[in-house]
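Request: Not sure, any thoughts?
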Amino acid sequence: MSTKLELPRRTILTASLATAAVGALAGCGFSGKNPGSGGGGDGGGGRLVDTLRQANRPCNHLNPAFGGGGSPQSTWLMSLMWEGLINRDPLDASKYIPAVAEEWEASDDGLTYTFHLRKDAKWSNGEPLTAQHFVWSFSYYYSPDLAKQGNQNPPSHNGSVTSTKIVGMADYYSGKVTDFSTVGVKAPDDQTLVITLTEPDYKFLDGMISMYPLDQKSVEANPKDFWLPENLVSNGPYSMTAYSQNSTASFELNKSYYDAAEYTVTKREVQFNSGGPTAMMVNYNADEIDLFRVDGDPGALIAGRPDLEQQLQAASMIQYKGLTVLPCQNPILQENAKLREALSLALDRDALAKVSPPDAAAQSWAPPGIGGWDGLPKLEFNEEKAKQLISDAGFPDGKGVPELQIVTYQAMPFLEAVVSMWQKTLGIKASVAVQEVGVYTETIYGNIPKDFTGFGFDYNGIAPPSMLSLVGGNFKNYAFVSAATGRAYFDLVYGKDKGKYSPAETSARAQEILAAGWLPEYKEFDAQAKAAVAAQTDPDKSLELAIKAATTMQNSYLFMPTLWAGYSFMIKPRVKGLQLSSISTGMFSLKGIKLESA
């Protein structure tokens, strides 16, 4: 669901940025405007048009076997061309809805999932899409040969639906067995797919959203380029008809798609733009595009343009911005729960939200509007209690606490406000360390300098259905370990031992390292989260257990939610009926929307 953003008025948007953006855009636009698609008027009374034009950051490729390069921009476009077994409801992200599978059910123990595929599912070439195609796709995604090409976290979906969670998959992925019939992915008939797990998995259904089926013939004929327009056979609502890396891509409605009649937008033109939202705004104002995603501060983008306020829209706030305790050489944060709680109590999250519009204060682990989670304890702001707790922890007035740092990949005003609150209330020294993205990634995965003590900034989306993904799916369990364990994990996956073992063996060894070094609070939380998954056939019981698990982790303060956020977009008034989502695999659907000219 999308809403108009209410933003504080700003008066300055520097001309230098706009000028730089114009320069960056030279030669990057389409050849002309959409015929009949006028500028940003009210859109009323115009004739319908069939082409939606959008700007997107560049994508290296759109191969789902390698996650499309791993960026939200690529997963967004891949969701046009392919469709998984299930999806999320664009109007209510707390629900799963049918996709290729019309119905599905889980066994009482949460280990067996049965998907019933729709009979009218077809490939873009008109041939039937069956359960056997999914079986082959699983065998392809997890094949050892593909893993050797760099696919260490297969496939495009979440890594937890990997070799260790599907019966027999670990041995197949590692190459110990070559017969895929030993794996727990079966197709008893054309419309039935049965998947058996070794243990309940709170990320499994989320993974099935982007478990895209691949056409065996086209993949085998063009192993590296099957996703390019001239070779593409896909099953999503759109087919890609043209692609120029870092320039443009074109999509047309897949007439073989089972729900094609519900789509009036028959064409989609994408302009790749590396200049960011300021550069994209130049295209938008020139009426060369109809929409784009706004990164950074939306308020600054439309400063001095009250006529554009109605065109700045936000999706539901189901993304979190938070602080994760990192496994540092100085274990003061890992070992002292009172200190962690004091740091959380000192945060005025309402004030943080004011310096990070349009974000909302994270009052608990659950974002606003998720049904059934109102009972989760609220995160308190209490300066006096914070001062007492840090004294009880053995650090009166912050004495004895080393300088705390928050490592991040870009400067953010609210993080500066966080350290200011800690310094003012608790008397500790704190700072924000802005690192290049690659260095930041290494740091949060365990390559932590000996003199660093603190947190990693975490910005990620959650998967709301039953909130089980919030309870365990996205939070970084590699952070909730001892310093020695964190270093061992980094060395294996990213450091001196990288490539020493096969991808499957690396994954297995990594899990062994983490399991041996988890902090006690995380162990308790993980057990409770798995119990919640196992109880999914009893929704009320599952919810009760999930809230219990979330409460355990929230009260540990190993991860501190600070703000809730959602994707923001600039959208022309002529785009009617678009429902935004903060889920990267499908930020919006074109089903049912209409385009009008001014």
Observations:
- The first helix runs from residue 15 to 24.
- The chain has a mean pLDDT of 82.
